[in-house]
């Protein structure tokens, strides 16, 4: 079972969210190959059985996650990071999309030279897709102690929290506590 507090985001955000903080303690789902196997059950990955579950694949995903984290955090802060972008581009250079005509029409599939790069490349490519859709919807949770990210799909594009039930509720409780303390 996936222990993370936020799942179901697009694969690039879901990869970022393999690191989370709970009770002040940092957790990393990709510390082990068993954690990678757990992540492959994520809704963002569909049928995770087609991806390699090797130590090399795990290391590539961690490398991609850290490059994505640097790029996304720079993006969220409005401060582009050329070194982080260069690192992500090096990862993207490991693969490509192959278009062909299949039995039921056009097909597009990722192709990598090393199978260990497949899921890492898909996650990096997914981030580019989110940028093409609407880069302003790529967000970090507004709770100061949270490290999670999401792609805001709300109609008004005003989502602030990774989870209203988690971080949103904690923020409301903190404001209520501060008001009641001030009233005393």
Would you write up a description of this structure?
This protein is of the alpha+beta class. Helix content is 45%, strand content 16%. It has helices at 11-16, 33-39, 55-77, 82-92, 118-133, 164-183, and strands at 19-22, 25-28, 95-102, 105-112, 138-140, 149-151. The strands form three sheets. The protein has a two-stranded antiparallel ribbon with strand order 1-2. A two-stranded antiparallel sheet has the order 3-4. The chain has a two-stranded antiparallel ribbon with strand order 5-6. The chain is globular, with a radius of gyration of 18 Å.
Summarize the structure.
It is built from six helices and six strands. With 184 residues, it is α+β, with helices and mostly antiparallel strands.
Output the structural class.
alpha+beta
Major pleated sheet: 2 strands, antiparallel
Q: What is the helical fraction, as a range of percent?
A: 40-55%
- The rough form would be described as globular
Question: What is the count of β-strands?
Answer: 6
Share in β-strands: 15-25%
Q: On the 0-100 scale, what is the average pLDDT?
A: 91
Span between N and C termini? Answer: 45 Å
Global Rg: 18 Å
- Helix count? 6
Keywords:
single chain, 184 residues, alpha+beta, two-stranded antiparallel ribbon, two-stranded antiparallel sheet
